[in-house]
């Protein structure tokens, strides 16, 4: 039994102090639980986001999960090798968790990447290919129209002849992969006639007709 009021007060102080320590311990334990729950919630969120990234593209299917699994095995391999050699472990459990979490996070930025970029199967986009087809067709039609205009022109100025020379130097690949000119030499020779529609050979033929006509006329006389 307590012998004095002083002892009673001392005991009460101890009880209050114990209650305070107990209360603080309870708060600390609760906080630790909260921290664990928050960490697990964060890990779950990261895994969910990584899975969402992987599912967005066939090129990324299960990528994050495979890399995380391989990284975990690699860490275990390094730790086991150090243990067998009697050396300190390079990765503590805490460090291993941090490393694996960084692996899960390495592709998280792709969640905001457009599928057009993530799933790009070739260099050009479809809209660019359509533009090129349209452009090439327009170039082809303009070139064809220009050539036909040159064919019927009465006189070819220097700029027309220069353009024709540029067309002459262009080539394309046929079905066998052989380079072929846009214009053959015979076609270029005819199109590059400066005035009129006859080549020098054709003009000579026409002039020979005059001679034949004159000869026939002389024979009739």
Topology:
Blueprint: H1 5-56, H2 63-84, H3 93-105, H4 115-118, H5 126-152, H6 158-168, E1 171-173, E2 179-181, H7 185-191, H8 200-220
Antiparallel strand pairs: 1-2
Helix pairs in contact: 2-3
Structure characterization notes:
This protein has 221 residues and is mainly alpha-helical. It is built from eight helices and two strands. The protein has helices spanning 5-56, 63-84, 93-105, 115-118, 126-152, 158-168, 185-191, 200-220; strands at 171-173, 179-181. The protein has a two-stranded antiparallel ribbon with strand order 1-2. Helix 2 (63-84) packs antiparallel against helix 3 (93-105). The longest helix has 52 residues, at 5-56. The radius of gyration is 45 Å and the shape is rod-shaped. The relative contact order is 0.05.
What's the short version?
This protein has 221 residues and is mostly helical. It has helices spanning 5-56, 63-84, 93-105, 115-118, 126-152, 158-168, 185-191, 200-220, and strands spanning 171-173, 179-181. The mean pLDDT is 80.
Indicate the multimeric state. single chain
- Output the structural class: mainly alpha
Percent helix among the residues? over 70%
The H/E string reads HHHHHHEEHH
Taking all Cα atoms into account, the compactness measure Rg is 45 Å
* Number of helical segments with 4 or more residues: 8
Instruction: Determine the mean pLDDT.
Output: 80
What are the segments in which pLDDT stays under 50 over at least 5 consecutive residues?
Answer: none
Largest sheet entry: 2 strands, antiparallel
Shape: rod-shaped
Question: Within the largest sheet, what's the order of strands?
Answer: 1-2
Give the amount of beta strand, in percent. under 5%
